[in-house]
Fold this protein.
Amino acid sequence: MPYDAAIVPAQLNPELTPDLEREVRFFMKWGYLVVENAITPEQVALLRDALDETFTRTKSQFTHQLLEEDERFAFLLDHPPIFTRIQAILGNCVQLHSATARVTEPGAPDQSWHRDGPWPVDPDGTPYGSIPGQINCGYYLDELTMQNGPIVIVPGSQRAPFKPPEGHPRFPDEKFVLAKPGQAVLFNGWLYHRGAANKSDMRRRVCLMCYQNAWMKSRESFDGPRMTKLRENGTPAQKLLLGGVAQW
Ligand SMILES: O=C(O)CCC(=O)C(=O)O
């Protein structure tokens, strides 16, 4: 399958500022990073409107292929405050795994602990050095509280060479991330995580943009009209993100 070789980055790693280096170190140690001012109040309002309209249409807890649903989601693909950090951690060869919105209704129960990928983990990687690289970015559009169900994580668990337990038992060092609209929560797909029960009387809305090494398989095909157009006419990074190198 031919692909445009010009969309393949010339270097694997970008140059990092000292601040970015510090954030990368934090992420590598703990498996998550809360990014302040990731989106503006105007962008929060725009995403809320777009997601509310999408949810009215689909009536579905999950919206997959989110970027096809509404033009207002499009900027999330390579939104600089996040994409810069994704590239700082994963390198320049990055592909989108999926773009999803999740609307958690009042009364929704606790999610079980899970990892997003099926691949086993070894903290040492393989002799070659490979470790599956996938980072999810949650833009929480409602302030997370202990009532509406924060995302719960076990910092450092991305390196555990065993699966999380079934259900949602407590971990002594679990952390309830009380994210605010405007912040974004980056988390390693192999971090033990779960959304807590929504005991409030309001919906809890999140857009999840999931990135990975460009050589991993994506969940979504990005073959709807909006993304097909962008893969043909976008920047080299956008083309790569949307699976511009499908096979080689
Ligand atoms: O709802 C959340 O905060 C986490 C979502 C999640 O882990 C998932 O959809 O797999």
The chain has a mean pLDDT of 97. The first helix runs from residue 18 to 30. The first strand starts at residue 32 and ends at 35.
